[in-house]
Write a structure and sequence with these properties.
The structure holds three protein chains of three kinds. Chain A has eleven helices and four strands; from the N terminus they run H-H-H-H-E-E-E-H-H-H-H-E-H-H-H. By secondary structure, chain A is mainly α. In chain A, a hairpin with a 2-residue loop joins strand 2 and strand 3. Chain B has a two-stranded antiparallel sheet with strand order 1-2. Chain B is mainly α. Chain B has one domain: Orthogonal Bundle (ABC transporter involved in vitamin B12 uptake, BtuC). Chain C is of the alpha/beta class. Chain C has two domains: about 200 residues, Rossmann fold (3-Layer(aba) Sandwich); about 130 residues, Response regulator (Rossmann fold, 3-Layer(aba) Sandwich). Chain C is about 45% helix and about 20% strand. In chain C, a hairpin with a 2-residue loop joins strand 13 and strand 14. Chain C is globular, with a radius of gyration of 23 Å. Classes of the chains: A mainly alpha, B mainly alpha, C alpha/beta. At the B-C interface, helix 2, strand 2, helix 11 and helix 12 of B face helix 1, strand 2, helix 3 and helix 4 of C. Chain A: Belongs to the binding-protein-dependent transport system permease family. LivHM subfamily. Chain A: GO terms for molecular function: L-isoleucine transmembrane transporter activity; L-leucine transmembrane transporter activity; L-phenylalanine transmembrane transporter activity; L-valine transmembrane transporter activity. Chain A: Keywords: Amino-acid transport, Cell inner membrane, Cell membrane, Membrane, Transmembrane, Transmembrane helix, Transport. Chain A: It is a multi-pass membrane protein.
Amino acid sequence: MHSITELLQQLVYGLSLGSIYALIALGYTMVYGIVKLINFAHGDVMMVGAYMGWLAITVFHFPFFPAILFAMIVAAIAGIIIERAAYKPLRNATRIAALITAIGVSLFLEYGGMLVVGAQMRTYPNVFPETMYKIGGITFKFGDIVMLVTALVLMLLLHFTVQYTKIGKAMRASSFDMEAALLMGVNVNTTISATFAIGSALAAAAGVLYGIYFNSIDPLMGITPGLKAFVAAVLGGIGIIPGAMVGGLVLGVTESLVSGLGASTWRDAVAFLILILVLIIKPSGLFGKNLREKV
Amino acid sequence: MKRVSILNRKNALTLFLVIVIYAVIQGLIVTDILPPLYTSTLIQVCIYVILAASLNLINGITGQFSIGHAGFMAIGAYFAGIVSVKFHGPLFLALLAGGIVAAVAGFIVGLPTLRLRGDYLAIATLGLGQIVMIIFQNMDYFGGAAGMQVGRHVNWSWAFWGTIISLVVIHNFVNSTHGRACISVRENEIAAEAMGVNTTKYKVLAFTLGAFFAGVAGGIYSNYMYFIQPTTFNFLTSFNILVMVVLGGLGSMTGSILGALIMTVLNVALSGIPSLRMVITALLLIIMMLFRPSGLMGTKEFNLNFLEKKEERTVA
Amino acid sequence: MKKLFAMATAAVLSLSLLAGCGTTGASSNGGGSAAGGNLKIGADLELTGGVAMFGTAAQKAIDLAVEQQNAKGGLLGKQIKMDYADNKSDPGESTNAATKLITQDNVVAVIGAMTSGNTLAASQVAIDNKVPLITPTGTADKVTVENGQVKPYIFRACFIDPFQGQVAAQFAANTLKVKKAAIFIDQKSDYSIGLADAFSANFKSANGQIVSQEKYVAGDKDFRPQLARIKSSNPDVVFVPGYYGEVGPIVKQAREMGMNQAFIGGDGWGSPELFNLASADQLNNCYYVNHVAIDDPSMADFVKAFKAKYKQDPDSFAALGYDAARLMFQAIKDANSTNGDKIRTALENLKGFKGLNGDITMDPKTHNPIKDAVIIKIENGKNVFMTKVSPK
């Protein structure tokens, strides 16, 4: 990197990539916070959402907002079905059994999806204006702002839902002690279903935005961002909503700086190395202690 | 305590069975009755049995949630491949080298990361596995991302006896004082610590030994397959090994063997319906976990005790 | 309880063993490769896993080729039956797939695999069993020639990396008359690396200069950090030897960043999908090496048939898969036999075959097809033929 402008430009790229990771990580961290399940299928739910959005825009000719809403609703229903069918029976089984089931669900969505829509990529139409903005030599486009703003808004919405609404209270209670919550009259099943519904809807929103931002989607598109978002969630302190946001942004910026320094082939290794170092030094993640609340 | 002779009836019978299995299959191969696809499937079963058993040592016996096993397999595969291809070393040396390098790597990364518990350890090991893969992708000496050509040096005898030796070592480790200590770590780490068990030592020991055998299995893999690529050893392969262990039953060595056998045979058997293969595998996995979350064998072992006379069993 | 488990396990084990023996008997009796009036050809393809997109595209094209051939009466008086085996985009699985096709299904020839690594993993099985294998897109030099020795039974339907890299470099140096080039490589693809090496060597020998070299990984979506580095090295031309799935976003993002240089690529660019991934405007001033002029009549027929059958446009993987299958059919017809050695000889002596990708003559010394390359210029969302380059 030759100048401050270039460095700032790389930071902007990092933030826009990071906000995508953050969007996916929000749902990831919420599900983990409440059910304590590493939902490996989260990235694939995002893929389902992206395809639903594509279907709505190109086949049903929906405008942007109805399309994203459609994708979110379908994904929420899918999330509830997945939870009821695959995860609920295992709620009291070992963590590892639940993890294996999540891997099974993930593979099922990937290859079941491939069976339905084929392996080839589909291209998203341009929904956002392609205008470029330039401030002091740093360029960014409309999509960058949409991503960052959506991630921020959803994070705040989610945070307030969890903190100040009745269902949020039920979520926190279930997360803290499921049996006690049950005894106190919380409908744990509904609460967990709601958690999955919201988490999946968030993933779908992320999927549609991802598709629009990068133009192309395919059935295996969820694997890499899913893994990255998971890293982001852990980095910020898994189960902590603002942590997922910060973790996503940190990961995005790290990746773009590593690439910007000319070491793009080591990008993912650096991301994982930071993850491991954070875990060793502060296992609860960057935000693990400051905010004690667990979603 | 009564000393049990190594050459008791049970061991003799097991040894006899092992030799019979080996001899029958070797006979079928030599006489060309067994089709090559079956031979190659059997050899892959052997490779995955070692991988599953060694991961079981870490996950099932010692209770440390590791999902980066493919990383150690990769190290073993590449170093054994290098010894075979670039130095033309004998196969035994190649496998040993692969195992040792993997064990050293396991020790180095195990020491700091094994302080972590549960899901956090899982995440860290997942990351480690990916880092190993990326390192090989960036090393031109190992062929980089495009891959490395290794000849076929492994045959059925090598794979089979390699597996048997690995299983005997792992089995004896589990049944030794060290193994008991590892189990105590799994059951209750704090209690084990209070009883004077050096938990860190046993966790690292199990991890290193597990990594060693993963390396050996990787060595057999690279010396059997003609060509290896870093992406072969990605986190999906780690998951695959983990699935074998959990399917068979965490903590059950015979379960791991069964899990490896089922998954490998299933993979080959379904290859005629490529578009459905992964979907069926995924569904089977989900259904299996729903109806038997503790795996096929639970923590039990399949053994030959039921063949013995009643009195003998009570003595043992 | 314990006993129950033990017995259950024993039952499973013996069952699987029995199942094994059952099929063993059947297959060893099968022997004849053309049993039941069918002629069996195998395809070892990337149908799942990382590059499933390549294999599934080729599978569709091969199915189309088989359908057309069977409609014309098949081969040697028999209907062709394809046996597909999935290699999961993994070399080890590719060895397994080839073993299954050749020793179990007794196919007379194999098509595949799509990547050089997976083809290398399958080729030893083909050589050992004397079954000819043709790869649609395995472009690395060593796929067919190793240590100066041509590998018997192994052929390819595509260009080799050095040729395409050379054509692109000479085009940049002589036609575009530029001096400074940057290279942007797909790190995981040996195709990309091979093309880049050849481009670099040829461009330098034409007094050009490589000002920067950056890498990405197939599947990446965000290329801006690396493009920023390329931009600051100020090249006259950027060589991107990748596949259209990544090339589209690369060109799009580069243009958005204000990089107006010419972009050059190889046959991996060849897909109508490219025009959906980047706008027509952004794709102006882009050039790529391809097999044949797009307006060639044989290509038009293929595109029409493909679209009618699958409701989508074929890409270069499909086109090369189609050619590979038809080359193999032609060789079996010429050999008038299903004998591996005879098919191999027929393939080696194949001359002037009318492929989608131009006239193909197989070089017996390298098992590479000798065919012309063309340079395509992208102009306002259309492929425009520029020049034709014949191999020396």
